[in-house]
Amino acid sequence: MSDWHTLEIADIARKLGTNLDSGISEEEAALRAGKYGYNELKEKKGRGILSMFLAQFTDFMVVILIIAAAVSFFLGEAKDAVVILAIVFMNALLGVVQEERAGRAIAALKKLTVPRIMVKREGMVRKVSSRELVPGDVIFLEAGGFVGADARLIESANLRTNESSLTGESTPVDKSAEKINISDMAVADMKNMVFMGTVAVYGRGEAIVTATGMNTQIGRIAEMIQEEHEVKTPLQQRLNVFGKWLGLACLGVCFVVFISSVLRGGSILDAFMTAVSLAVAAIPEGLPAVTTISLALGAYRMAKKGAIIRKLPAVETLGSVSVICSDKTGTLTQNRMTVSRIYVEGKLISVTGIGYEPAGKFYVGENEISPLASEQTLKLLHAVALCNDAYLEHFKGSNTYDVIGDPTEGALIVLAGKTGLTRLKLESQFPRVNEIPFDSKRKLMTTIHKTADDEHIVYVKGAPDELLKLCPEADKAGLLKENEKLTSSGLRTLGVAYKTIKGKVNINDVEKGLTFIGLVGMIDLPRPEVKDAVALCKQAGIEPVMITGDHRLTAMAVAKELGIEEVFARVSPEQKLNIVEEYRSLGKVVAVTGDGVNDAPALKRADIGVAMGITGTDVAKEASDMVLSDDNFATIVAAIKEGRGIFENIRKFVWYLLSANVGEIFTMFFAILMNIPLPLLPIQILWVNLVTDGLPALALSVEPVEKDVMKKPPRRKEEGIMNRNIINSMVFIGIIMAAVSLFLFTVGMKDSIEKGRTFAFSALAFLEMYHVFNCRSEKRSIFSVGIFSNVYLVLSVAFTVMLQLMVIYNPFLQKIFYTVPLSGQELFYLFALSSLPLWFMEIKKALKI
Predict the structure, then answer these.
(1) Taking CA 200 as the corner, what is the angle to CA 196 and CA 201, rounded to the nearest 5 degrees?
(2) Prediction pTM value
(3) What is the CA 79 to chain-centroid distance, rounded?
């Protein structure tokens, strides 16, 4: 149907088979999911295996190889042509495996960022993944939340939605639950409907789902624009540019090899084949794929630890973070608020019980009291339960309770529950008829309720200093002094006030002339793991900063316990944005946490925006680069550690790949300078490139994070992959590889050119296998790192060595690769000399040069 907006709410409920009071059952939801499918937009299908495979043959250097193979075939060198094509085919298979694995890792990350929607099922309010919504579900809307499906409003309290994603109009739209009698109208005019993909920016509402998935308004648009563009991260872009310059340099060397070979009397075909093979081996064409895999797998590992990366560039930026601007509540603290003090009628009342179970006692000094016996205390309990949007969820058959909604409001619901008062019971007596939602600028929330005698009572809660401005008869000085006592002991405080209205209610006047009831003090203990995380930050050269809207004394008490020295209290969203900009202007790389709608600008402006996964609004999550599934500061620090490790691993496999390529080029180039026969045939060069560049480089990309990675200062954001130490080592190792290969070649040539080339060919493969262990750490000895601490690397090296031995000793492969078998003694010498790069680098690391 397309005319839901024209029907009465009762008719809609009947057509969709829904009970508006209790929602649908879980069993019915499962049946409807089977009928309508998951509530998600179908994405454009990615490239299939065949398409990925064929794409491997579009690379310029691969095309040149295929042409070279064709020329060889027509000139009677059929064997060489077949081998070249086989190597090209195997390289294409490896490329498909790398691309497919990267795709799977990125797809897995996308599934972790699906919004969760508050829904009513079987009379209970719970949160479910938006993809589980079905037609007939009753959903709740609140400021900052995404609308999970197309739905007809049942109730609207000052609800406004941003529908720019659907209509292009950025001005928020006022919503109403009233029926519209015009059937044929534009989506933008359907004021009683909300639509999938839009955002609630103000107020709250309740709605019944009418369409899901591709049947929604945005689903119809999605069918017409199913395109997805892959975005390269800055690191990938820099590596692409680096690869092009490297390619040009290598092509220059290959051209010299080609000219030199021809001038020395070699055939043009042989010279051409050698040059092309060397060019293919020299250019690290697998670098972009391995980089993508490393970033994606690293992001997936972070997700398992609670840090869900929404944008891949964030993985590399994490390693450069120098300042973390963190919220207090829920991030540095446990976010399980518990009311422990009430100040009312000049008395300080202690409340026992922790967590969300509604069980506890009330004391004044040593004496237990009944809070319901005091009119003012009862009024305070009514106020905190009714001026509230949270729900207390009780899991059947257990003593387990949880809060759906804001934890602070949850603590107030629990406080009332300890006296037997519940929100549902109170709302049946005093139904909410209007409200002014909480606003971070006002720091207040107001609800208006109808009483049995047709009067109205207004309840207001919020920051005590702001609320007292609206209470003309209150003892402001005395109450602020009591508030300071509570906050200085680490409690978060709220003030509560009320007002009775006879006659017509003017929404613009309801917050004027209020009567102050009392103060509520809540404790939110620091997370035990955060103190160590803060210390780790300082050790890593990262400055932890607290930014909170809480009272200065509360913030200082928590900061002191955690070891945080920089605190900004009573901060508005605009000030938070200014703080971020100020730090960035000082050249800092800033990570910022946030959960509210108004945090979105700061999250976007920061180098790393970090949204809260539990308490965060969907708007905050959409603006962020990373979402914390546990809302924990320690998880940010763990993600930074992982981000540093990922960057180091990328640096390691770049070091390895380029060192190997330099070794191959130097071997051929020095042979020309020495005026000796070329030590490697084209097929041998291609084989070494295939077996050494693939699996070992991939294994380096999953190298465990080094133990001292958080003892180093943050990496400069503009810092490249290659540093002076690695470049020097790369040239140094390249010279050693060439020297060993050419020495063995000249020794082997005393028997035959085939034995010399078998020595040189195998030496390059084994030299690179030893060198890959050097690349596991830029400064630490392999024996300190642990040879077997990366089992994938050990297995990949063993597999590569086995393949090379097959080429030496298998009669069939000997004919293909022009090798001869080596004696046991010769093989021993080959292995021993090939280990020289390892020992030279161990000495270099020990001497710290």
Answers:
(1) 145
(2) 0.71
(3) 50
Query: What does the DSSP 8-state code read for residue 808?
Result: H
Q: Which domain covers residue 141, as residue numbers? A: 4-40+114-224
Which of 523, 550, 573 corresponds to the end of one domain? 523
Position 287 in a domain: yes
DSSP H or E run through 807: helix 791-809
From 137, 327, 389, 599, active-site residue: 327
**CA 373 to the chain's CA centroid:** 51
Phi-psi region of 818 (alpha: psi -120 to 50; beta: other; left: phi over 0): left
Average pLDDT estimate for 463-469: 94
Q: Kindly give the pairing relationship between strand 566-568 and strand 307-309.
A: unpaired
3-state secondary structure of 525: coil
pLDDT digits (tens, 9 = 90+) for 122-181: 888 888 888 899 999 999 998 878 898 999 999 988 888 888 767 666 678 889 999 998
Q: What average pLDDT does this structure show over 281-309? A: 74
- Residue labelled with tokens 């080339």: 757
pLDDT band for position 43 (cuts 50, 70, 90): low
DSSP string of 1-28, one letter each residue: ---GGGS-HHHHHHHTT-BTTTBB-HHH
238-247, 393-402, 612-621, range with the lowest pLDDT: 238-247
Task: Note whether 666 and 760 are same-domain residues.
Answer: yes
Radius of gyration of the chain (CA): 34
Whether 550 is a known active-site residue: answer no
Round the average pLDDT of the chain to a whole number and report it.
Answer: 85
Q: Are 483 and 509 in a shared domain?
A: yes
Predicted confidence (pLDDT) per residue in 309-350, tens digit:
887 778 878 888 999 999 988 889 887 789 999 999 999 999
Closest CA to 337 of 430, 415, 448: 415
Q: Are strands 323-326 and 193-194 parallel, antiparallel or unpaired?
A: unpaired
User: At a CB cut-off of 8 Å and minimum separation 6, what does 367 contact?
Assistant: none
Q: Where are the beta strands (DSSP E) in 489-573?
A: 492-501, 515-523, 543-547, 566-568
- What's at 474, amino acid-wise? A
Residue 289 pLDDT more than 70? Answer: no
Number of structural domains (the chain) is 4
